[in-house]
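Annotated sample (chain length 337).
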Amino acid sequence: MTIVRAFAAAEAGGRFERFDYELPPLAGDNVDIDVEYCGVCHSDFSMWANEWRRTHYPFVGGHEVVGRVRAVGPDVKGLAVGQKVGLGWFSRSDLTTNESLCGDHNLSPGNEGTIIGRHGGFADIVRCQAIWALPLPDDVTLEAAGPLFCGGITVFNPLIQFDVKPVDRVGVIGIGGLGHLALQFLNKWGCEVTAFTSTADKAAEAKSFGATRTLDSRNPDSWKEAYGRFDMLMSTVAVDLDWDRLIRTLRPRGRLHLVGVSPSPVALRSAQLMGNQLSYSSSPLGAPATTAKMLEFCARHGIAPQIEVFQMSKINEAMAHLHDGKARYRVVLKNDF
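Output written by the structure step:
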């Protein structure tokens, strides 16, 4: 019998309180992870508030988990007790689907989410399917690794899926939890990177993360200089944007790619896309193999999120810090059970 100590909210937006529950015997291809750190993502906030109408209560969030393997099921291969691993948004896939067989586990129908219909990593133990427990390279620290398993893979996956080249010019919209990682990845990828920001005090910081240039989105002259410049625009923000103006900054065959969820439908004119053979796309996180590539890339180039660490027992303060827009740039909980 395995007793998990966790923090759970009993209702939408409710206060997180101590909550213990029992895991069934470990079997099959499952692994248990001793949680050492767990990132707090805006998706945790959305689930906690039941914004997506998918939340079950009591709700134990946390899908940016890092720790060490506690136990492995009898069918698990390639993982050992004590090994450093991370777990992200997905916790189980049907390995017999065409998508999984092709390596696109993140696109497999019926995927289980780490915090959807089950309990996540705001706890001392979390369970998942072994394929989603990714080994951490030695040069990736446990403390900062958690956000890579959601925010990191979200902005890294498009580089692989759409064959972004080192000679490409890429614009990143929004310098926050996702954007500051996108700047680092694209810089080390070899791209010319432009950070779109409406906050003047973030310009210098954007360059410290790897931006080659910055664009003041409030300045009309900045937009004029950007028209026809970019091979890809990556929007990392969850707000409605001036899509018509953004499309005009793309070069022929350019791509507008969304990893942030806009509240309203994205209005694009087909004629505008057609004339320069432009593309509009989005993508969900990444498959285990792509996540492993990202971790290796981070280890090789020293890429890490900028984090603020709270004790897990201070989870309510951490959630308020995130909600108030004070996070710079990712919040991480340290297990103090």
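Annotation: The chain has two domains: 2-149+286-334, 153-282.
Annotation: The first strand starts at residue 2 and ends at 9.
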